Amino acid sequence: MSFSEHHRAALVEIMRWRRDVRHFRPDPLPEGALETLRQAMDLAPSVGNARPWRVIRVRDPELRAAVRAEFTRCNAEAAGVYDEEERQEYLRLKLAGLDAAPEQLAVFTETAPEAGRGLGRRTMPETLEQSTAMAIHALWLAARAANIGLGMVSILEPARIAALFDAPESWRFTAYLCLGLPEFEDDTPLLHRADWQRNLPTSWEDR
Amino acid sequence: MSFSEHHRAALVEIMRWRRDVRHFRPDPLPEGALETLRQAMDLAPSVGNARPWRVIRVRDPELRAAVRAEFTRCNAEAAGVYDEEERQEYLRLKLAGLDAAPEQLAVFTETAPEAGRGLGRRTMPETLEQSTAMAIHALWLAARAANIGLGMVSILEPARIAALFDAPESWRFTAYLCLGLPEFEDDTPLLHRADWQRNLPTSWEDR
């Protein structure tokens, strides 16, 4: 397989237009969309081919409400660490789309998978969580290519989310993903547009 | 921006043909290729837009030799934990391309970045390392689209690699990347082909 400029241009456009979306329309996702996203995760790299990501599609309204309550609690605590001016700015940011997102996925990492037979993670067990992060990125790009918005929510306490989902002892909570059709299109990422943090270039040096 | 089937097909093809490459031709990368890879990292998501990835392009032959020695040491120790039959199988796997890869990148994560102003990582500081993992995945896809192979080496001791590069206290070693033109094309991922670990589907349940 040899890729051409056509593939490279498509990839860069998808990456350039990937967004962290927090404003969703409540409409359901197109038929088959979730299956496409699941397949994208299947194509992600993983240490030793261990594929440690574990996904729960959250449909139960009570579970959703419990996650939302956890977010609200953690977000209020997070706001408290900023000084008054920054706190007002923080509180203006919309950091979750938990109220409207029609699809919600709780993503965990199996920290003791049989698959992979331990390969490549003896000195760096964190490679399992790196693998899950890459699988989320694969899903994110596939979502964007399908014109579906994704917001990754990390203002949560991992242990409490694991307890909420009665996750096995060896699962570690990685991220909560909100998915849906975006309410509007951004030409500038949200945090850049909101003046929270502008885009800095990658730090890259030669030795 | 609205993406069409053309973009989705290109993305899936690139993801499907992404490989962990360990067999490189020694030829240098095409002119401008590294800059393309750096730009792909710039497009990765990051918590609070903190962009915590830090990249060192390793050219110094002494540094390369030191990394190679560290890999050899860790790999021998890793082989030791398997029983005899599995150990022979392990030792037949080629797990690094450090001898031939014309380009090598040491990737670190800044665990205390100013950028992002702490947003989104109070309860989950690991979101910084998730961000770096996603940036590596972005670079990996861009490399594949440019017909460049990438092997991610994690059989290394993070603290020793950080010391080797005299990294700041707040940097954590994330991965060592070998890049080059692949020696051959696989239609099956290496670990699957070598019967180490077949491809399992993503675990996905509804609640």
Please provide a written account of the structure:
- The structure is a homodimer of 207-residue chains.
- Chain A has 207 residues and is α+β, with helices and mostly antiparallel strands.
- Chain A has a single domain (21-193), classed as 3-Layer(aba) Sandwich (NADH Oxidase).
- In chain A, 39% of the residues lie in helices and 15% in strands.
- Chain A contains seven helices and five strands.
- Chain A has helices at residues 5-17, 33-42, 61-79, 84-92, 127-145, 158-164, 190-193, and strands spanning 53-57, 103-110, 149-153, 171-180, 203-206.
- A four-stranded antiparallel β-sheet of chain A has the order 1-2-4-3, sandwiched between helices.
- The radius of gyration of chain A is 18 Å and the shape is globular.
- The two termini of chain A are 33 Å apart.
- The model of chain A has no long low-confidence stretch (mean pLDDT 94).
- The interface between A and B is large, with 100 and 100 residues.
In short:
Chain A is α+β, with helices and mostly antiparallel strands. The first copy, chain A, has 7 helices and 5 strands, in the order ααβααβαβαβαβ. The first copy, chain A, has a single domain, classed as 3-Layer(aba) Sandwich (NADH Oxidase), CATH 3.40.109.
